[in-house]
Each structure stands twice: as C-alpha cells, then as structure tokens.
Amino acid sequence: MGIPVLILGESGSGKSTSLRNFTENEVGIFNVAGKPLPFRKKLPKADNARYDTILKTLSKPNLKTYVIDDSQYLMAFEAFDRAKETGYGKFTDMALHFRNLIDFVVRYTPPDVIVYFLHHTEKADDGRLKAKTQGKMLDSQLTVEGLFSIVLLCVAEGPEHYFLTNSDGTNPAKSPMDMFEGKMDNDLKLVDTTIREYWELNGGKEDEEH
C-alpha cells in the first residue's frame, strides 16, 4: 500500500522549489505542465506527463519517491480537451480519473513508495481554502483533500517559505499526530525522510530499488 501526500499552495508559494534537496537518483518527477524547475539542479522528470504515463511508471516503480507537479493540471488539461462535449458526464469522468490515480497509489504501489501531489489552491464560496479543481460540478463529485492522510500547505511570507502541517481552522492542512512540527521549512526531502522514519518504511531511499 503506497502513500499519496498532497502538497497545496498558490502559484509561487514554493511547491516546486521544495524539491531542491533531492538528488537525481532519489526522485522521479511527472512534470504535467512541462515547465522548468525553479533551481539549477537537474532532476529526472517526464515533461507533459498525463495519466497514462504516470500509471505506467507507478505500476513498476524503480524509485521510492515520485512527484506529480502540478497535479491539478491533469484535470485542467482534460477539461480543455473535452471542452466541446456537452452534458455533465465529463465532470464525473474527470473526478473519477483523478480519484483512480490516488487509489492506484494506495492499492497497487509498494508500501515504501510515496507519491507527492503538488497542487494549486483556490478559495471556495464560503471563503475556505481548498484544492483547486474545475468548478462546482467537479467539486460535487470529489473532495480532493479527503483522499489524503497527509496534506501540507505551502506558504510564502516575504522571503520565508514554509509548510503548515496541521490546520488552524482556516486551511486544509493535516498530518498524523506528532509526525511534524506545526511549521517547517519547505523542504520536501525533509518531509519524505520524516514520513519514512515515522512509519518505519524500511530505512527510506537507501534500500535496494524495486
């Protein structure tokens, strides 16, 4: 049973930058939008990745850490591709495809594989912060945050970038008791190490590859 982790944040809040401390043999990046990484280090990435590429790789993973950056574009690009279709069925399909990807991570990847979904945020009508989808119709089909046990919120305040690890009532962040401090540096490598230590995932990425 693999572990999906949701990393939420506005554009420019430091989600992609949080990858900076991984080495090239530690992480595989599904770069959905095909954009350059915001640092000089070269990390392996599959540009313009879609569901088929992601699922094919995760079905036979040779790494223990994967990142989907930015995962909300999987829904957005499908919406553009199907913009001329009428009816509500396409919204159900978009929700189902995204939910099935998360379910695949949980059900079909090894227990020491962690897949990070880097995902944009938006404000709901009631003012609460939530994971970005494709409008009210898709929201009625899918509550993204509810599919994850760990949701971290990436925050930028001037030069400081950090993760919030639990909610104060105004954000969707959550994590298991005593896994993290309430606020930590936006370092996804540190997050990955902490999760592996907390759940004793066989020593983390130093183990033999699958």
Q: What are the key terms here?
A:
210 residues; alpha/beta; Rossmann fold; two-stranded antiparallel ribbon; 5 helices
DSSP strand tally? 10
- CA(first)-CA(last) distance: 14 Å
- The CATH topology name reads Rossmann fold
Task: Give the biggest sheet.
Answer: 8 strands, mixed
Count of helical regions: 5
Low-confidence segments: 204-210
Query: What's the gyration radius in Å?
Result: 16 Å
The helix/strand series, from N terminus to C terminus, equals EEEHEHHEEEHEEEH
- Fraction of residues in helix: 25-40%
Q: What is the general shape?
A: globular
Beta strand %: 15-25%
- How many structural domains in the coordinates? 1
In round numbers, the mean pLDDT is: 92
| CATH class categorisation | Alpha Beta
What structural category do the secondary elements indicate?
alpha/beta
Widest sheet: strand order? 3-2-4-5-1-8-9-10
By CATH's scheme, which homologous superfamily applies?
A: P-loop containing nucleotide triphosphate hydrolases
